[in-house]
Amino acid sequence: MAKRKYIKYGIVVLITALLVFYFRDSWGETAREIMHTPLKNVLAVTGLSTCFFLIDGRIIQMLAGRTKQEFSVRQGIGCAFYCALFRMVTFGSGTAVAEVFYLNKKKVLPAKASSAAVVQYTAQRIAVGVYGTAGFLFLSLKNRQLLGKYHTYLTAGIGICILIAAVLLTISVSKTAAGCIFQAADRAAAKHPKWKEKLEKAREQTEILQQETRDLFLYDRKRLAEIFLCSLAKMTCWYLIPCVMLCGQNGISFDTVLPLTAVSYMLSGVIPVPGGFGSVEGIFYLLFSPLTGQGAVLSAILIFRFAVTFFPALIGAFVFFTE
Question: pTM score, two decimals?
Answer without folding.
Answer: 0.80
